């Protein structure tokens, strides 16, 4: 298990759109952030994804995921422009996204000093794999029992999370 530290000028991906995305470290607090999506104070979107790899010669079976290809589970946070602000890579085997988060340095840093990482009343959005925290928001569960307002909130969260999905597609060169 290893956390990747990327320099500010590292390019990712292979196509020209991807090359313009620059990896940065830590959270980049921006008031505008995801504000135009009508959910204020969101500073990032978090998710995990299996990144295809060429397996190491030793223990290659450890890197076969549930879809039967070799990969590592990458946890990432992106800002409102799809720029990676945090990356945790190196989880072998099939490991649930939430478990990867709990094993990451980000979780340990936030747990020990949340005010340094998630300023004031700011939040990171995530999917249903993660537990609700004071700094982490996700959609309401049980869609069919929700009020109209809760469904609208879920739609907003879902549309805002598309930025992390797009960033992963870019990273994978898709």
From TrEMBL:
Read off the InterPro entries from this record. HARBI1-like, HARBI1_dom
This protein's record includes keyword Nuclease: yes
Subcellular location as annotated? Nucleus
Gene Ontology cellular component annotations, sorted alphabetically: nucleus
Q: Does the keyword Transit peptide apply?
A: no
The molecular function GO annotations come to: hydrolase activity; metal ion binding; nuclease activity
Q: Where is the DDE Tnp4 domain?
A: 46-173
Main subcellular localisation: nucleus
Q: Give the residue spans that cross the bilayer.
A: none
Cofactors (names): a divalent metal cation
* Keywords recorded for this protein, A-Z: Hydrolase, Metal-binding, Nuclease, Nucleus
User: What family is reported?
Assistant: Belongs to the HARBI1 family.
Protein name as annotated: Putative nuclease harbi1
Protein source organism: Gigaspora margarita
